[in-house]
Amino acid sequence: MEQSLKGMKVVDLSQVLAGPYCTMVLGDMGADVVKVEKFPKGDDTRTMGPYINDESYMYMMVNRNKRGICLNLKTEEGLQILYKLIKDADVFIENYRPGVTKKLGIDYDTLKSINPGMIYCSISGYGQTGPYKNKGGFDIMAQGLSGLIDMTGERTGKPVKVGIAIHDIAAAQTAIQSILAAYIHRLKSGNGQYIDVSLVDSGLAWTVWEAAAYFGKGEVPSRNGTAHRVSAPYQGYKTKDGFILIGAANQKLWEKFCLNVVNKPEWIKDERFLTNSIRSLHVDELEIEIENILKENDSTYWLNLLDVHGIPSGPIYSYDQTLSDEHILSRDMILDYEHPVAGAMKTLGFPAKFSETPGQFKSPAPLLGQHNSEVLNQLGFSADEISDLLNKQVINK
Q: 157, 222, 340, 375: which has the highest count of C-beta atoms within 10 A?
């Protein structure tokens, strides 16, 4: 089955998470991705455990469906190899700190002179412009600057980092959609372009409800635990044996909840709970009232009852429970594959289900420099020339 991005050629100089996640998705959709790792030890993620037969599981998670070479760009020969790769590439992606690509001779202006139609995407912590552009920026710093940490956590507790590297993934998703938009533009016009993606901008762009509250009423988002800022009941509640999530956030669902789940018809006319906006002002009182009833039975009982009456609800899983849930498994969100060194492995599946051009797992993450000879052969290098590059430490073994 042909894939939607078959024929797209991507040269990937990124490492760790945001860039590699972006190019993994492009590879999942059929693009030919050549991952260029720095000489001699490769992507920094290779140093991060856990390890399976000395292969980093972290590295393997976001580098499937790529070919890999290890190239010393501090040598003239290494730089010329990259230039050859660039000549017929559709996309180039990097996540160096701003200014580094210019020093290496791989900045947009330089590569554009080699391939004018190329789409060049830079991912950095703060972007290529602005007073913070030269600062080093990881996901946690972006969470702090965007306000996410300050608005996350319990009301009376300390600010809390979001549980995943959310700005990294937001930047990856921003890069994916931007590259695809630029690719469509190039198909129409023949013109390439430069794309500047930052972790901070990408995550900040997701705070749409919070921005609405601030721009509309001057409200600064506060920590609310699992509670919603403008809807109630819409949060986690304690039961006899744990916690569950309930989302009776509109009037119809609220009334069904009162009548059919907690048997409290008087709440419908209670002045504290008359409308969604009023309930959100009394969210603490509502939480106490609801939990006084939920503590009488266990989570399974309440979740079944909520389902019967069509009220959105769900468990609060630990991650191991998530990865063994029947629905997750039925959606093929866990894939099994064989790695040449690590052996039998599992990875996450494809979140979008295409009817005609689905994502495919074609190859596991490359070993360091695994495709040196293959890629160099395609560029016209002979076996003797490749051996010479190896001896000169332009490529790794």
A: 375
